[in-house]
Design a protein that fits this description.
By secondary structure, this protein is α/β, with parallel strands linked by helices. It has 17 helices and 22 strands. A hairpin with a 2-residue loop joins strand 21 and strand 22.
Length: 462
């Protein structure tokens, strides 16, 4: 029976396919400040119970009093469990006096007196500073591993390990599981990532998973991967309206259910208005629809919606209109996309507008990561039957007909339909629309003038 030890975080458990295997030896590695202690402490208090206690040993890192005082800031901390269900012991002074060999009798004594179901040693890396030689360290590790393996307990060794340490130090050879926490500073914020390097005898979700530290502990955003196609999956042969007068005719009769449409154009071309018309058409038909944007705040969007004749409060109350806003200053692509996906799946949303993809691209420290996320997200939408508008601001159109902007072409290839909006300024502003791609049907190849009125965008048809 494959029993798992939960991390206390459902998203981290999802990455670990249920948690750490019971009676395993695991390393939680990362540089100072990456969140190792928070991760371990959340696990400790989540698993604390009256049946068997948990032992948390501090070595030459922080004293117990400081560790506990820091923990008081987090929601998972429960003072009533101290000295009963959770035991802390600072063994740094004894190790400094007696050497690393003292760790074995300390563990053996704890096993006799407490019989702990989980043992945490923080920091195990610090024991290297006390070892007189590499041979002595390996000897201690061999004896300690034998003792821990023979006893019914799950072990976590925390340490300020680097990637080089993972390739050189002996504890990594005996570890059953290795989880790495990383912090990547950017100009506006720190991006944090969790990665599983090893989980012996078990599958896990590979890659780097973003997280942030909140009052409840780590908020983890598992990397979005492409869905497996269900055996009973069938393409929905259904056209739906874009909500933009005249636009459906250009698209050959409307949008296929579950398709993705890239709407590209310059500032003032009508992208946002078209996106709002698309979700409002869904609201009118009783379809839960979501508008996600990273520029206008909810108050500004609500004003535009009211100008289009929509009672925002009533639509939200009925659960038909969903608004999502994230400031472009704080954008973190992992959290945004994963949060959107969860909402869409949980609230059974059928229409989505993301305004605009360019904001995500500028916020992405890794363009390839953004591309992979968008690809996976669109594949999920297709399987779920979610019809999507991706708004993208451009400086024009390239020679190949695709949006002329960095990565614009890569995003366009993910789309079923591509709608290009253009503006020309002479005596007055002239706006036009053209469909350069409409997968699965014939479409109008002409350039048509559009107008933006108080009722929204309208295509001028002959």
């Amino acid at each position: 029976m494959n029993v798992r030890i939960s991390t206390g975080n459902c998203e981290a458990d999802e990455i670990l396919f249920g948690g750490f295997p019971k009676n395993s030896i695991n390393i939680i590695m990362g540089l100072p400040g990456t969140g190792k202690t928070v991760f371990a402490q959340n696990l400790v208090f989540h698993n604390a119970s009256a049946d068997r206690p948990i032992l948390y040993l501090t070595t030459l890192s922080e004293p117990v009093a400081k560790v506990v005082r820091y923990l008081e800031r987090f929601d998972f901390y429960d003072e009533s469990k101290l000295a009963t269900e959770v035991h802390y012991d600072d063994v740094g002074a004894r190790l400094a006096k007696e050497g690393i060999g003292a760790i074995l009798p300390i563990i053996e004594e704890a096993i006799r007196t407490l019989a702990p179901k989980i043992i945490v040693i923080d920091s195990f890396k610090a024991l290297h500073d006390l070892a007189p030689s590499g041979l002595e360290l390996r000897k201690m590790l061999f004896e300690l591993t034998g003792t821990l393996t023979a006893f019914d307990t799950t072990v976590f060794l925390l340490g300020e390990y680097t990637n080089e340490h993972a390739q050189q130090l002996p504890e990594f050879a005996v570890a059953d599981g290795i989880v790495q926490l990383m912090r990547n500073p950017t100009t506006t914020r720190d991006e944090r990532f969790l990665r599983v390097l090893k989980l012996r005898g078990s599958a896990y979700l590979e890659g780097s998973h973003a997280f942030r530290i909140e009052s409840h502990g780590l908020e983890v955003f598992p990397r979005l991967v492409s869905p497996q196609l269900p055996e009973n999956y069938k393409i929905v042969e259904e056209r739906i309206s874009s909500g933009v007068p005249g636009m459906d005719k250009l698209l050959g009769g409307g949008l296929w259910r579950g398709s993705t449409t890239l709407v590209a154009g310059p500032t003032g071309g009508g992208k946002t208005t078209m996106g709002l018309q698309f979700v409002l058409e869904g609201v009118k038909l009783g379809e839960p629809s979501l508008y996600a944007n990273f520029q206008e705040n909810p108050t500004q969007i609500a004003r535009v919606l009211r100008n289009l004749g929509v009672d925002v409060t009533e639509a939200e109350k009925k659960g038909l209109l969903k608004l999502y806003y994230s400031s472009p200053v704080e954008l973190q692509i992992d959290s945004v996309i994963v949060t959107l996906f969860k909402r869409i799946r949980a609230e059974k949303i059928t229409r989505v507008v993301i305004d605009a993809i360019g904001d995500l691209r500028m916020a992405a420290s890794d363009p390839q990561r953004l591309h992979d996320y968008l690809y996976a997200l669109i594949q999920h939408f297709t399987v779920m039957g979610v019809t999507t508008f991706l708004n993208f601001e451009t400086a024009g159109v390239g020679a190949d007909g695709h949006p002329a902007s960095a990565n614009g072409g890569r995003i366009s290839y993910l789309s079923d339909n591509i709608v290009i909006l253009s503006t020309e300024v002479k005596e007055k502003v002239k706006r036009t629309v053209s469909v350069i791609k409409a997968r699965g049907g014939a479409h109008d190849l002409s350039i048509h003038e559009i107008e933006i009125t108080e009722n929204g965008v309208r295509v001028k048809l002959p």
